[in-house]
């Protein structure tokens, strides 16, 4: 396994536009990567007749990290979601979504710095046991939480907090009502917290967490939670810093890791030099940190922050008139 080769999945819609921009930034920062390009999503369906070809899975397994553009799962194909399938296939149990206030965005807050650590393979979101009665009147789904899954994600969150010099971990749950599933998660979270006396631990019910995030996000540091709650809370956190265009995500397992922008493929603006590549560039920063390349990661982060703060050569969603290429060039010129 060569650490200087990464797998790149351009994806659908604006995926190729923002992936090209991100690769240029990585090259300009002196990362010296080789790239193994692979198809997935609609592009793969067109080229290979399937959404996730075996050759793509082999490249994800072979290289230490994968950078992925947004993918479209066609409606009504019986395929739940390519992203969910990838998480299961490679056991990418930890979904890490950092949000950070950047000067120059249209966000309502300027003091947000939160990492949401979401369990990525279990719970309500995993789609287990979905059935609908023949008469279409009753639908059912299953939520399964395991002690192993809960312990693994909580330990991951505390280890990340320690590594990043974070002060506090908040375990988010609904154990007051969902006494078995959320109850087990909370019980395990309390046990894991005992092993990290250097980090402040708190627990919070999910609805109260939403309210407090909206009122004063500065009270949060690291949030750890189950799959469905994490999906909702991480998007809420993205809204605090200017939306999904500012939100990267990492999916991390024991052997593989996939880094992405968490927004959709926006096919309506594909290929028109309009997309904001910030989320994927921030995802690439997460990838560099994961690969131990923190110097390059810091360099790119500063360049992105300075570009957005300047208000010049920024994309429309950031209040400017620049296209993807001009915005990317502005970042590169600061490198």
From TrEMBL:
<dbReference type="GO" id="GO:0004449">
    <property type="term" value="F:isocitrate dehydrogenase (NAD+) activity"/>
</dbReference>
<dbReference type="GO" id="GO:0006099">
    <property type="term" value="P:tricarboxylic acid cycle"/>
</dbReference>
<keyword id="KW-0560">Oxidoreductase</keyword>
<dbReference type="InterPro" id="IPR024084">
    <property type="entry name" value="IsoPropMal-DH-like_dom"/>
</dbReference>
<dbReference type="GO" id="GO:0000287">
    <property type="term" value="F:magnesium ion binding"/>
</dbReference>
<dbReference type="Pfam" id="PF00180">
    <property type="entry name" value="Iso_dh"/>
</dbReference>
<comment type="similarity">
    <text>Belongs to the isocitrate and isopropylmalate dehydrogenases family.</text>
</comment>
<protein>
    <submittedName>
        <fullName>Isocitrate dehydrogenase</fullName>
        <ecNumber>1.1.1.41</ecNumber>
    </submittedName>
</protein>
<dbReference type="GO" id="GO:0006102">
    <property type="term" value="P:isocitrate metabolic process"/>
</dbReference>
<dbReference type="InterPro" id="IPR019818">
    <property type="entry name" value="IsoCit/isopropylmalate_DH_CS"/>
</dbReference>
<feature type="domain" description="Isopropylmalate dehydrogenase-like">
    <location>
        <begin position="5"/>
        <end position="331"/>
    </location>
</feature>
<dbReference type="GO" id="GO:0051287">
    <property type="term" value="F:NAD binding"/>
</dbReference>
